[in-house]
Specification:
Blueprint lengths: L5 E2 L8 E2 L1 E4 L9 H13 L3 E3 L7 H14 L9 E6 L9 H12 L6 E4 L25 H13 L6 E4 L3 H10 L6 E5 L7 H10 L2 E5 L18 H10 L3 H11 L3 E4 L4 H6 L10 H8 L22 H4 L5
Parallel strand pairs: 3-4, 3-10, 4-5, 5-6, 6-7, 7-8, 8-9, 9-10
Antiparallel strand pairs: 1-2
Helix pairs in contact: 1-2, 2-3, 5-6, 7-8
Length: 321
């Protein structure tokens, strides 16, 4: 069983495993396959699981953790780090705490280790299939009101730490200026083809942990890109090192100091994704990766609307595209 390094505890968050297992698979649906994959991941050494209301996998994660305890794979729920997210239809000042309680009911847990604002966008309250109709995008996002709800989740013990997802550097700085409880994490797309240089600088300066999803570009999903897996530079480095291209990408994120989220239900790849800790990229390889052309793979087009707060991708990411 692999041992995964952890981010040291701070005043904002407890220790956090540097590699987590993601559960977002389109179309969003729960399944026995997801539960079985999470259970196998625990057997292999994974201790960090990332879910969200919109993914419909909170129940699967909770069932896997409970079964792992029953089987003696872990001593208790406290042995795993669980992240979930408040979806945009609940990102209203009065709806955050009830949404967090619903997440805990789905998980069958008393708390989550980390609770995130999923996107800086509010939708009309209700249940929608994804992608959702544009008319449910509301014209403004009450960042302060929503964050006060997140702070209340922290105060009540529903979430051990709180943070955000898909916040630009500018939006993160805006949140930091008004937060009584500072966000511990910003979870965003990070991979060699979108290295988040601007945001990374702000996170390092402000002590916010960067957590990267889509480290391989999420090829094959509606929101993903083939740019990472098709990169000749990354393919060449992988061949020279005798590693998979995925391992090169994951090692690069690890060396940046990021927490990284992987998503596979294939046992062989689960194991490969943990074989990144006992070797390093060379300075030359790091330099080649640093020179890769940058293009955001997940622009967030679903949230662009003439009557919403963001009329363009540039608006959503404050020019960092």
């Amino acid at each position: 069983m692999a041992t995964i390094p952890e981010v040291p505890a701070s005043e904002l968050i407890q220790t956090m495993p540097r590699v987590g297992m993601g559960t977002a698979a389109f179309p969003f649906t729960s399944s026995e396959d997801t539960t079985a994959a999470m259970l196998r991941a625990i057997e292999l050494g994974y201790r960090h699981f990332d879910t969200a209301r919109i993914y419909a996998t909170e129940g699967c994660v909770g069932e896997a953790v409970a079964e792992a305890v029953r089987r003696g794979l872990i001593a208790s729920r406290a042995d795993v780090f669980v992240t979930s997210k408040i979806w945009c239809s609940d990102l209203h000042a009065g709806r955050v705490v009830p949404a967090a309680r619903e997440t805990l009911r789905n998980l069958g847990m008393d708390y989550v280790d980390l609770l995130l604002v999923h996107w800086p966008v509010s939708l009309t309250p209700g249940n929608y299939d994804f992608p959702f109709p544009k008319e449910v995008i509301l014209p403004s996002f009450d960042m302060e009101g929503v964050w006060r709800g997140m702070e209340e989740c922290h105060r009540l013990g529903l979430a051990r730490a709180v943070g955000v997802s898909n916040f630009s550097a500018k939006k993160l700085e805006q949140l930091l200026s008004l937060a009584a409880v500072r966000p511990a994490v910003n979870q965003v797309e990070v991979n060699p083809m979108w290295q988040q240089r601007t945001l990374r600088e702000v996170c390092r300066r402000e002590g916010v942990q960067l957590c990267g999803y889509s480290p391989l570009g999420a090829k094959g999903t509606p929101w993903g890109s083939a740019a990472v897996m098709d990169s000749g530079v990354l393919q060449d480095i992988a061949q020279t090192k005798g590693k998979t291209l995925a391992q090169i990408c994951l090692r690069w994120l690890y060396e940046q100091g990021d927490v990284l989220l992987v998503k596979t239900y294939n046992e062989k790849r689960m194991k490969e994704n943990l074989d990144i800790f006992n070797w390093e990229l060379t300075d030359e390889e790091r330099e080649r990766i640093s020179q890769l052309p940058q293009l955001r793979g997940l622009p967030g087009l679903e949230f662009i609307s003439d009557h919403g707060p963001y009329k363009s991708v540039e608006d959503l990411w404050d020019g960092d595209v």
